[in-house]
Amino acid sequence: MTTKDYDRWLDEVLQGTGRRVLDAGCGRGELAAELTRRGHAVTAIDVSEAAVAAARASGVPARLADLADYYDDEPFDAVVMSLSLHHMHPLGTVLGRASELLGEGGVLVLDEFAWDWADAAAAAWFYDAASLLAAGGLADFPREAGRDPAERWREAHEDHATGAAMLAAVAERFEVRDVRREPYLSRYISGKLTNGSTELVNELWRIERERIASGALPPTGLRLTAVRL
């Protein structure tokens, strides 16, 4: 799912159309398909056979490949990673390869989730909202009554790279141009919905944005753009 805000950001960082883009960790291919519709030449790769199969089934000619050792004959104008870098290890290896794949002036575009930016209030809001939707038959999400939300959050994400680690690893290999903290928890929950009505999704986003604006919740989404050194 994309939003108008997200689409505007992509247009801003990719600067027009006709860019040669590597979608690293393409998943089911939604972003690659959207970038193709916007006039870019997209190469989509993922290490998951299931994800590549799903992307191909939707019309995206994805390739089974690992960014850490991916090779292409021509440099890319942009390497885009949407919710994939926090799964990649070691960070230095994959980001080093991303830099090598970019041409002069090439841009790294990260759309990420920084789980370490979530505090106890964020964990409680996330699990309360998800459990309520699951109880109503609207989300495929396990309910674990009585567990401490912050502890549950840490256990669920401790194998993911942190926002701090991703920022540090990028800064070692790129010139960081822009870092934005954005809402993310609603997007996380929306991916679990079995009835993903637009009205319900929009309401989740509204509530999260208002809580962030009031200081009750921290933003846990990360958008970053950087150029190769």
From TrEMBL:
Entries under InterPro entries matching the protein: SAM-dependent_MTases_sf (IPR029063)
Pfam families: Methyltransf_23
Alphabetic keyword roster: Transferase
PANTHER family attached to this UniProt entry: PUTATIVE (AFU_ORTHOLOGUE AFUA_2G14390)-RELATED (PTHR43861:SF3), TRANS-ACONITATE 2-METHYLTRANSFERASE-RELATED (PTHR43861)
Protein name, UniProt field: Class I SAM-dependent methyltransferase
Species annotation: Nonomuraea rosea
Top-level taxonomy: Bacteria, Bacillati, Actinomycetota, Actinomycetes, Streptosporangiales
